[in-house]
Write a sequence for this structure.
């Protein structure tokens, strides 16, 4: 027991001298939020500092999760509940419930050490010691995040849509897969809604030419069409922005969206308009020597290939940890599971 107490004291003293400890103690004086980079740094610092304690805890309580270990260390450091909740991205009530569950998971000796009834100041230790005794800080080894275990923060449909609208024209930073594909789903719903409304207008609204007073109907239809156009165009910029951020998440250049999305869409839409509205298209030819049908075939092929490439790229996970375009939108919790 004395060895465990001494080890806890060493870990406590070591973490108290880190920059991450200072961040936890002072972050509420800023904007009451932690960034992804700060959460990541705090987690890695806890993992390094409390590694020997975590080994003993895993041996005595195999049911503990990585999140439980992280919670135990922060509680032992007497970090405020709101700060722990911010680190784990949960509510304060969830923190209280976690402590109750740990009461059942942890052996009594561990629970008494990690959750002492009497709080202490940063200079105190677990047990009373002579003031002359100084606990030397342990060395914090450097550590790669290559084999990190990824724990995703929840991204709901509503949160993804709100995030895309709040970053309406933001082409900087990174976007995770769920944010991008939720927006694609939202945009698909918008397009289906527009098609349905147009079909209803065509079916149920009478031809104004057959009515004596057609002005109100024409005005109503015009207002509906304008609203639908605004609704459609209003989703274009956020879609481009989230697409660029999705490329950034994979550590790819954002300008690739021109080749993969903008250019094929423009060519395809232009070719479609030409085919529908220009008379006698078969008589037209281009400098390449091919007729309009061959050209449109090439455009359609380019559109299909670019769409497939874009879907495959955006279905793949982003780079782990920060990259050249910003912090990881998925929080990395801890090292890969140990055997």
């Amino acid at each position: 027991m004395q060895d465990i107490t001494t080890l806890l004291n060493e870990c406590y003293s070591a973490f108290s001298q880190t920059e991450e400890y200072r961040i936890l103690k002072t972050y509420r004086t800023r904007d009451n939020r932690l960034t992804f980079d700060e959460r990541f740094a705090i987690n890695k610092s806890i993992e390094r500092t409390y590694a020997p304690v975590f080994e003993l805890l895993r041996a005595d309580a195999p049911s503990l999760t990585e999140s439980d270990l992280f919670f135990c260390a922060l509680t032992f450091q007497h970090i405020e509940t709101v700060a722990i909740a911010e680190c784990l991205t949960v509510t304060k009530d969830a923190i209280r419930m976690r402590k109750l569950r740990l009461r059942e998971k942890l052996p009594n000796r561990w629970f008494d050490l990690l959750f002492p009834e009497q709080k202490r100041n940063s200079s105190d230790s677990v047990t009373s010691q002579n003031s002359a005794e100084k606990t030397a800080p342990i060395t914090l080894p450097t550590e790669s995040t290559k084999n990190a275990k990824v724990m995703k923060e929840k991204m709901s449909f509503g949160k993804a849509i709100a995030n895309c609208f709040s970053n309406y024209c933001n082409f900087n930073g990174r976007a995770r897969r769920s944010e991008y594909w939720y927006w694609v789903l939202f945009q698909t719903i918008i397009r289906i809604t527009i098609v349905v409304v147009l079909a209803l207008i065509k079916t149920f609204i009478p031809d104004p030419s057959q009515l004596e007073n057609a002005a109100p109907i024409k005005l109503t239809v015009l207002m509906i069409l304008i609203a639908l156009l605004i609704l459609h165009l209003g989703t274009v910029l956020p879609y481009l922005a989230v697409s660029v951020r999705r490329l950034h998440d994979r550590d790819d250049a954002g300008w690739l969206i021109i080749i993969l999305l903008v250019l094929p869409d423009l060519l395809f839409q232009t070719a479609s308009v030409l085919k529908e509205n220009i008379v006698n298209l078969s008589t037209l030819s281009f400098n390449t020597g091919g007729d309009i049908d061959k050209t449109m075939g090439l455009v359609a092929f380019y559109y299909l290939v670019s769409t497939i490439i874009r879907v495959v790229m955006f279905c793949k996970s982003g780079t782990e940890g920060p990259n050249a375009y910003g912090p990881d939108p998925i929080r990395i919790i801890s090292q890969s599971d140990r055997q």
User: Anything to note?
Assistant: The chain is about 60% helix and 0% strand. The chain has three domains: 2-128, 155-251+323-339, 252-317.
